[in-house]
Amino acid sequence: MGGYFDELMLQEQEKAQQQQAARNARLYNPDGSAKANDYRPPPPLSAPAFPGVEPRGGAELIVHRGRLLAVAKNMKQDLADLKAALGKLSSCGAGGATIAGWETADAFGGNAGNAYAGISQFYQELNDAYEMVIANLHQTVGIYEDAETETVSAIRGVGTGTASAGVAAGSWA
């Protein structure tokens, strides 16, 4: 009876596979691509992170220093939270690494100690990266402020005769 039952099950399985193939043939083209009648438009694009700002191209560069400083301020708060989490992790210690006494516990303790060390190192590197990005944002704001000040100064100096006097005096070195 076992062989006969296996043969019946095989026939039922082949029949189910043929029925599934027939259903799939109605949904897909022979190359596997979907039929045209199942098109769904993509979801709409999400709104920009800063309200009222639409991305656009152009020949001019606009730097919103206030927004850069806002990002730096928010990141500083995130950094404080990350440092608090690292402090909490460090204060708890690597308790799992102390599990020992038999082969399985020794292996678990070693794995727990390695995980603790890896997570601690990751958090410290993440904190360092945050500090670097915050410093870079502040430096970028300073550079743009200096550039704007120099540009305004140069524009105001045009036509006052200071530039031409320097050229006449032979200050080109």
Can you walk through the features of this model?
This protein is mainly alpha-helical and 173 residues long. The chain is 67% helix and 0% strand. It contains four helices and no strands.
Assembly annotation: single chain
Report the end-to-end length measured between terminal Cα atoms.
105 Å
Determine Rg (CA atoms, Å). 34 Å
Number of helices: 4
Number of strands: 0
In short:
With 173 residues, the protein is mainly alpha-helical. The chain is 67% helix and 0% strand. The protein has 4 helices and no strands.
Itemize the secondary structure elements and their pairings.
Blueprint lengths: L1 H26 L37 H28 L10 H55 L4 H7 L5
Helix pairs in contact: 2-3
Give short descriptive properties of this protein:
173 residues, mainly alpha, 4 helices, flat, disordered C terminus
